[in-house]
Give the backbone structure.
Amino acid sequence: MPLPFDSRTVFFTLEVLGTFAFALSGLFAARAHRLDAVGTFIAAFLAAFGGGTLRDVLLYQRPFYWVANTSLLWGVLVMALLASLLLRISSRWLSGGVFLVVDAIGLGVFSATGTQIAQQQGWPMLPCVLMGVITATFGGLLRDMVCNEKPILITDPSPYASIAFVGNWLLLALLHLQWLDAFWATASTAALITLARVVLAWWGVKLPQLDDGGGEAEKTS
């Protein structure tokens, strides 16, 4: 059944939203650590493109997607140059709820497309799922590392990578059962991951964390 719209345009639009949401998170991190212009661009670049670049490296995709779409790269560069202005505007007009939704779109789109591309290349199921998680989260991990802080990905108990992990298994099931074509299966999964991220964050759901045993030590001392 032909689509009533250009699927590539839809996905590219969503990827633009996610890319610039991740880039904005890099700007916030740069401001928190008082980085100079070069450091600000590096933080924004890694946050926006780190996961997708690693995906392209592992999947032997050439050219890298930010080379094929240099408008994204120019956009992040302009954001870094205008960081002070953008951060003032975003702090005033971009509420936490709006930023959460845009970031969740990036999580959903990048994780689903990363998994779908790996599946198309014949990768086994678990590596496909992990490829999607890496695509959506590795940029934030790199951002935190260059800012010399503990990565939020592994310290924040709010469900994030785990949502992508579960959602990517759903995508593989839809692709295997062929209930939907590849576009609709990927789009549906991206939407569900996005929705799950937003709902669980608004509800304040936290994942269980390991106990360091300090409480037991006090009781037995």
Q: What stands out?
A: The CA atoms of residues 47 and 140 lie 5 Å apart. The two ends are 70 Å apart (CA to CA). Residues 216-221 have pLDDT under 50 and may be disordered.
